[in-house]
Amino acid sequence: MNAHQGVANLMDYRQSRPWMELILPLYSLAMVILYYRPQALPPAIEEKLVDGMFRWVIWGIVGALGGVLALSALFLAFYLLYSPVYLVENARRILDPHVWVDHREVRFYLGCFVLLVSLVALALMNPDAALVSFVLLAGSAQFLWRFLV
């Protein structure tokens, strides 16, 4: 194996984070459940069993995952809100059959626009359901990006 293949393998490994694709959706689901049903919190966590340094470790992990979820939600909100701007600015280019367009990019922004319209419609009918959907989408954003592209 030459040096170029080693760097390529390292880059492929660094871009793929399968543990995050599993943990972040589970974390977002747990946050939604605990928000609406705080009695679902295991009693062992509330008791004195989780005391001292172990409690700080748990809070550190929860805080770190909360930060990653917030960052994911920020990127999701950006792409959802930018999708109509992108589609309007590039409508003439997208509809012209003689101009080359990246179909994956157009499909991505169309998917984001459909999600935006769906979330707005859901927010008008049931704001709590829209908030839960957005949080779950933010937790599953890596799956979403892969699906849309």
Model description:
It contains eight helices and no strands. It has 149 residues and is mainly α. Helix 2 (18-36) runs antiparallel to helix 7. The radius of gyration is 20 Å and the shape is elongated.
The gyration radius over C-alpha positions equals 20 Å
Structural classification: mainly alpha
The proportion of residues forming helix, as a percent range, comes to over 70%
Query: What is the straight-line distance between the termini?
Result: 31 Å
Sheet with the most strands? none
Order of helices and strands: HHHHHHHH
Low-confidence stretches: none
Number of separate helices: 8
Mean pLDDT: 83
Shape: elongated
DSSP strand count: 0
β-sheet strand percentage: under 5%
Q: Care to give the gist of this entry?
A:
With 149 residues, the chain is mainly α. Helix content is 82%, strand content 0%. The radius of gyration is 20 Å and the shape is elongated.
Task: Please describe the structure with a list of short key phrases separated by commas or semicolons.
149 residues; single chain; 82% helix; mainly alpha
What topology does this entry show?
Blueprint: H1 3-15, H2 18-36, H3 43-46, H4 53-89, H5 91-95, H6 103-125, H7 127-139, H8 141-148
Helix pairs in contact: 2-7, 4-6, 4-7, 6-7
